[in-house]
Every structure is written in C-alpha cells, then in structure tokens.
C-alpha cells in the first residue's frame, strides 16, 4: 500500500457568512490522480488554495508529501507545482521571460532556466509567441503558459485547477497526454475539472464536492454503479402511444419507468444489455408502436454529477422527479442524507 | 512533440535560505519589475515630467519672488535644487505603492507565493527596481538642473555623497509605499494614498523656502522633518546656500540625522510591510 501524497482532514474555511469549506477530508495515494468535481462555488478552488499554502484554513489539518501544510509551508512549496484557476503570469513579460523567471525562482541558473523555458514553450505550441508579451496572448495561450510555468520543474505533487478550461480540443488532448506521462512517471496529481470526460479519462479516483464537503468518493465505475445500471430509452413517434409503450416495456423493467410526455420519452431501468434491447424492439414492433428512437444507456459521469449534487432537483423537485431516473435517485439520496 | 522531452524537468531544489537566497530571489523579482518599466515607459516618463516641471517653474516663475537670506536671485536657484531632488526621490513612494497594490490584485502573486522563494523578496525586488528608477530620474533631473544653471561647488565626491543620501532616503520611502500598497484595495487608491501626505511633508520643510519665514511652532516641525535633514545635508555637500544659519540640532548635524532617519524609516517600514505581506497572503 502506498502512502498518501496528499491528505486533508476536516478543512474548514469561511469567508464572512460563506462556509467555503465545511469539513473537507481527502487522501490521494502516491502516484495517483484524484479528480475533484463539484458545481460552481462548491469549494474546489478553496481546497486547492489551502493545500498549496495560499490560504490558511480556519481549522483542520493537511499534509502534502508527508509535510504539514500549516507548520512547514516553505517546505511544501518546494514539493508542489500549481496551475491555478486563473492564469498567474506577468502580462508585461514575454512568454519566454515568464518561464525563465519561474525557473530562476526555482534556483535554476539563468542558462538552465532559459533552456527549460524554450523547451516548454515548444511543447505547449507557444514557440511562435515566445517573444511576445503575455498581454497579447489569447485566453487559451495564457492558460498554456501558466500550465508550462507549473511544469518548469517536476515536483512530486501537482495541483491543476481546471487545467483545460478554455483550451481547444487539440491542446486539451495534448495536455492530457502530458498529464498521463507525468503520472506514469510517479507524479501525484489533484485535478479539478468541469469536464467529466476528463475526470473519467485521467482520474483514478473521483471526489465530488458540494457546499464545502466531499459528498461522494470512489472510482468512476463505482460512482456510476451507485446511481444505477442500464436503462432502455424509447422515444415514440406519437404521444398517444405512450401508455401502450409503457405497457409493452413493463415486463422488462426492473424499476419504475419514467415518462416525459413533452419529449415522448420513456426510460426504464433494465438488466441484460443488448439482448433486452432486441427483445424490447421486437415487442414494440409486434404491438405496432412506431418508434422514433431507441437506445441502451449506461450512466455517465454527468449523470453521477447531477444525481449527487442534486442541483436539478433543488430548483424544482417535482418536475425533476418525472424527468429522469437520475434525478429521482438524487432526491431519494438527498432525503436519505438528511 | 514527444512527451519525453517535457517531463525531463529536474526535481525542484530546496529553498535556499538565508540572506543570500533572499537577495537572489529579490534580484529575479527586481529584474521582472525593471523589464515591466521598459514595457510601460509611460510610468518612467511621467515620473520624470513632474520634477522637471518643478525645476523650470520654480526657477523661472517663482524664483524671482523668493529671496534666500544673504543671496541674490541666482542664490535661490542654487538653494532650490536640493529641495527638488529630495522631493523627487520621495515620490518613489507612489511608484512602490501603486506597483505593489497592482501586483496584489493580479494572479502573479499567487505564482510567487506557491514557489519555494523567500517571501520578502517580492517586496525587496519591488523596492530595488524603484530605486533604479529613482536613480535614473535623479540623473536626468541633475542634467536639467545643470542646464538651467545649478552647480555643485565642493567637488565630485561630496556631490556623489549627496546623491547617495538622496537615494537612501528614496529607498527608505519606497518601503512606506510598500506598506501603503499592501494596505489599500486598489492600485488607483494606492497612487493617491501614496502621494497625498507627501505634499505637507515636503512643503513643511526647508525644501522650497527658508524655514525662518515660517511661524515659530512650524519651524520646530520643519527642522525635525526627516526630509529637511536630507535637504540640508545635500546643500552642505553640494556647497549650495543653506539659508540663514540656525541653532537647531538636526540642521547642525544634517548628514548624520539624514542617514539616521532613513535607516530608521527603512527598518520600521520594511518590518511592517513584510509582516503585512505575510498575513495578507496566509
Ligand atoms: N476570497 C474570497 N472571499 C469571499 N468569498 C470567497 C473567496 N474565495 C472563495 N469564496 C467563496 O467560497 C465559495 C467556494 O469558492 P471556490 O472558488 O472554492 O469554488 P469552486 O468550487 O472553485 O467554484 P468554480 O467551479 O466556480 O471555480 C464560493 O461561495 C465563493 O464565493
Ligand atoms: Mg474554482
């Protein structure tokens, strides 16, 4: 079993009336990636800022690479790399100068820093803009410059707060490859993201944060399993056929079907995969119900996210309940939590 | 594009403690600030315009009306320059306060704070860069003053000594600026907060008019003003007229009083600023 490279216990931080962190517990084993998910304002950035010594929590404790964040912040700073949610670059320095400065502040010699800066700029497709001041960079270019700054040295623990926000698909993919490479070589990473596909691909473990607390924790598969298995989704051509279709589907359902009249969609939880789908199609055909669309759906991380954070249900529970099984799960889960 | 080249980065080195590490980090930050000045030359140019304007206005507009005891109209010109030099170096306050306030509102400060560097070096680097800018301004100003007829008469070395006192005062004052910059919430507020109190400070002094013309209670304030000591010391070192002799102690020991004030201001305000920076960033 490997050591926890990042661990946090009961982190609390308030800003006036806002309880940004309300008892965050985390642990990230060495050499793994933790994806921190959560809606806007959940406390992801605040968590990252506490762990990277930028912010002191009101209470709680945290260690990074075994070093106490509150007691030895200087030591922690020499063990981490950070790219925050907002690019931390000097607008009036060129890309090259920005990275060189960071290198020199990492105690590199001027020559080493210069060479490393050049290497990183090439890698992040910024070589052409290396001599331009960062003020003239586009949003995605600044973002990449900031990521490059986080990679000037190779610290054992990295924190990336929404690293791919604002990146085009090609640059996003390239960054994913970098991250995978870093992790393959032993870096521990805490990553926040709004792209669940990104978490699915990169993170070994996922923690969902809401209202300053970790409300779920596990691998992507575990979380998906938690909110239920496969479902068959049918969209009928004529809404008058909805009751008939529900009737036809009910023998295959392992739970309550959900009906959305305005989209003419029926969703039923099933087991048995593609075979069930074929049976359902035959059954509907036999009853001469015309279908517009049909498919077998497995839950995505988006479903997990919406279900756990329950934000769909919060605004209007009644509507949400009829809308999707995920929302229903969320409601019951929320009730169970209370 | 292969990932191998990217990940060859070295592991980070331990923070270099002590004064040497702090100075090294400060120099990196100072270089950054000096580069910024070359990218935004307006800051330097406007910093020059005000004192040059003062030299010209005081020399040609008001000079004729102000008499220095025991001197002709040329005497006022000679008397005035030390005052303008000193006022110019104290205006470094505004540069430091605006610069630091701006840095604190920008994301870059997070980068600095997450790096294994000495915390105080962000402030030391700023004040060093401001010192370089001040030295440049004083140099240009000295040339302008020379053109309008100002001279130093006690030799080159003593004149250099006077400039050293001026820069020391300017450096001390930039730490006041640092504290102001850390205490206000916006760069705009920092600029006015940095400047506003300099006017009474520099005018209730011997900088522009002889103190003997002020009411008695104000005279005492003016003589003990840290600013007056530097002005008086510069006049002595430049061999410029000093106005009527006084029997006030700080004026009679102006060089040492000037050094003492500057060191005291530097010690107090650098301590307060670094403390403020640490708490603002925790
Ligand atoms: N410096 C601050 N002053 C006041 N409130 C703050 C401050 N920083 C964060 N907060 C509040 O703390 C809460 C958590 O913010 P945080 O930035 O951690 O959210 P987040 O999960 O990163 O959100 P996002 O997805 O939008 O980036 C929010 O309600 C925010 O308004
Ligand atoms: Mg955030």
UniProtKB/TrEMBL annotation, chain A:
- What's in the keyword line of the UniProt record? Antibiotic resistance, ATP-binding, Cell membrane, Membrane, Nucleotide-binding, Translocase, Transport
EC main class here is translocase
What membrane topology does the annotation report for this chain? Peripheral membrane protein
Q: Name one Pfam family in it.
A: ABC_tran
KW Translocase (keyword) present:
yes
Residues of the ABC transporter domain: 6-236
Asked whether the UniProt record includes Cell membrane among its keywords, one would answer yes
**Stretch list, region Disordered:** 315-338
CC per GO annotation:
plasma membrane
One Gene Ontology term of the molecular function aspect = ATP binding
For this chain's UniProt record, which GO biological process terms are given? daunorubicin transport; doxorubicin transport; response to antibiotic
Q: What family does the database annotate?
A: Belongs to the ABC transporter superfamily. Drug exporter-1 (DrugE1) (TC 3.A.1.105) family.
Q: Please identify the protein, giving its name as recorded.
A: ABC-type xenobiotic transporter
Organism the protein comes from:
Streptacidiphilus pinicola
What lineage does UniProt assign to this protein's organism? Bacteria, Bacillati, Actinomycetota, Actinomycetes, Kitasatosporales
From TrEMBL, chain B:
Show the InterPro entries listed in the entry: ABC2_TM, ABC2_TM_bact-type, ABC_2_transport, Nod_factor_ABC_transporter
GO terms, biological process: response to antibiotic
Residue stretches spanning the membrane: 43-67, 79-101, 122-148, 160-182, 189-209, 254-274
Q: What UniProt keywords are attached to this protein's entry?
A: Antibiotic resistance, Cell membrane, Membrane, Transmembrane, Transmembrane helix, Transport
Question: Keyword Metal-binding on this protein?
Answer: no
Task: Tell me the protein family, please.
Answer: Belongs to the ABC-2 integral membrane protein family.
| Name by which UniProt lists this protein | Transport permease protein
Q: What is the lineage of its organism?
A: Bacteria, Bacillati, Actinomycetota, Actinomycetes, Kitasatosporales
């Amino acid at each position: 079993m490997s050591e926890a490279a990042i661990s946090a216990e009961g982190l609390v931080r308030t800003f006036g009336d806002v309880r940004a962190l309300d008892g965050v517990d985390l642990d990230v084993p060495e050499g793994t990636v933790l994806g921190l998910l959560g809606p806007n304002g959940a406390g992801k950035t605040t968590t990252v800022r506490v762990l990277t010594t930028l912010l002191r929590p009101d209470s709680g404790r945290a260690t990074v690479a075994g070093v106490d964040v509150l007691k030895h912040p200087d030591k922690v700073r020499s063990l981490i790399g950070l790219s925050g949610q907002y690019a931390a670059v000097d607008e009036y320095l060129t890309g090259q100068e920005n990275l060189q400065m960071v290198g020199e502040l990492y105690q590199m010699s001027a020559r080493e820093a210069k060479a490393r800066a050049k290497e990183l700029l090439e890698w992040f497709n910024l070589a052409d803009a290396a001599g331009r001041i960062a003020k003239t960079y586009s949003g995605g270019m600044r973002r990449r410059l900031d990521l490059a700054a986080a990679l000037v040295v190779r610290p054992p623990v990295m924190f990336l707060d929404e690293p791919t926000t604002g990146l085009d698909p090609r640059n996003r993919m390239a960054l994913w490859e970098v991250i995978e490479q870093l992790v393959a070589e032993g870096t521990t990473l805490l990553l926040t993201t709004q792209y669940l596909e990104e978490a699915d691909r990169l993170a070994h473990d996922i923690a969902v944060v809401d209202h300053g607390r970790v409300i779920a924790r596990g691998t992507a598969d575990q979380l998906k399993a938690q909110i239920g298995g496969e479902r068959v989704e049918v969209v009928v051509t004529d809404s008058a056929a909805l009751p008939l279709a529900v009737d036809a589907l009910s023998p295959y359902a392992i739970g309550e079907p959900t009906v959305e009249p305005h989209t003419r969609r029926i969703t039923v939880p099933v087991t048995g995969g593609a075979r069930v789908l074929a049976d359902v199609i035959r059954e509907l055909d036999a009853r001469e119900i015309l279908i517009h669309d049909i498919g077998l759906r497995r839950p995505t991380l988006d479903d997990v996210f919406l279900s756990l954070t329950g934000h769909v249900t919060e605004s209007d529970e009644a509507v949400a309940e009829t809308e999707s099984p995920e929302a229903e799960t969320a409601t019951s889960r929320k009730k169970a939590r209370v | 594009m292969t990932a191998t080249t990217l990940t060859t980065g070295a592991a980070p080195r331990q923070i270099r403690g002590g004064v040497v590490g702090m100075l090294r980090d400060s120099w990196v930050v100072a270089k950054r600030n000096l580069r910024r000045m070359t990218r935004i030359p307006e800051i330097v140019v406007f910093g020059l315009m005000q004192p040059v304007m003062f030299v010209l206005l005081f020399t040609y507009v008001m000079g004729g009306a102000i008499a220095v005891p025991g001197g002709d109209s040329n005497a006022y010109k000679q008397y005035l320059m030390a005052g303008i030099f000193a006022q110019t170096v104290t205006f470094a306050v505004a540069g430091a306060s605006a610069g630091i306030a701006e840095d604190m509102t920008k994301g870059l400060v997070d980068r600095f704070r997450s790096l294994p560097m000495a915390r105080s070096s962000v402030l030391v680097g700023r004040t060093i860069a401001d010192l370089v800018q001040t030295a440049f301004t004083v140099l240009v100003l000295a040339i302008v003053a020379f053109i309008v007829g100002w001279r130093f008469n006690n030799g080159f070395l003593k004149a250099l000594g006077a400039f050293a006192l001026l820069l020391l005062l300017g450096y001390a004052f930039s730490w006041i600026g640092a504290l102001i910059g850390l205490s206000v919430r916006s760069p705009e507020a920092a600029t006015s907060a940095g400047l506003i109190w300099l006017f009474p400070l520099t005018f209730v002094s011997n900088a522009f008019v002889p103190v003997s013309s002020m009411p008695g209670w104000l005279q005492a304030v003016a003589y003990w003003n840290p600013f007056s000591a530097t002005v008086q010391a510069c006049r002595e070192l430049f061999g410029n007229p000093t106005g009527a002799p006084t029997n006030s102690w700080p004026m009679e020991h102006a060089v040492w009083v000037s050094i003492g004030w500057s060191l005291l201001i530097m010690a107090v305000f650098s301590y307060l600023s670094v403390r403020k920076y640490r708490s603002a960033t925790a």
